[in-house]
Amino acid sequence: MKLPIYLYGHPVLRKESNDVEPEYPELKKFIADMWETMYHSEGVGLAAPQVGRNDRIVVIDASPVADVFPECEGKKFTLINPEIEILDGEKVNRDEGCLSLPDLSESVPRVEHIRLTWVDEDFNEHSEEISGFLARIVQHECDHLEGMLYIDHISPIRKQLIRGKLNNIVSGKKRVAYPVKYAPKK
Known about the structure:
Blueprint: E1 5-6, H1 27-40, E2 45-47, E3 57-61, E4 76-98, E5 101-119, E6 125-131, H2 132-145, H3 156-161, H4 163-170, E7 180-181
Parallel strand pairs: 1-7
Antiparallel strand pairs: 2-3, 3-4, 4-5, 5-6
């Protein structure tokens, strides 16, 4: 089932997510719905807060960008309770976009080499060193679990320059081709 994507301004995007336990109700169905939603929205990653749940669940399929970033070839993950360890502190700027911030992209500084640990939907433990653009995707999605958005990493001047576009999202003036949930009216 396609779930609505919660857009910038919705409070669910700013809350820290909770750890997921094996007895999580209908976990596999929820994950399948996240995959369907991500593919329908043409994203490469989706975090549970983006569909209204503050739970530490992320789905990533980086293969659509593998023609430009070869490290993304065949990289498809379901991440539950992911943890990131920075392995190289040097940051590189690259453009990022987000399904919760439609039609925006900004240059964001991120490290290029991390160690990711997580459990999959069967609660099997995994650990992997990840580099390049794939590390960026993982960091971007895991930021959602901490109540952060990529625009939190840009300069105040850049944020001021996109303020009008952000206000259009919050006010419901921004329309997109996938189902969405706007911020509640104040």
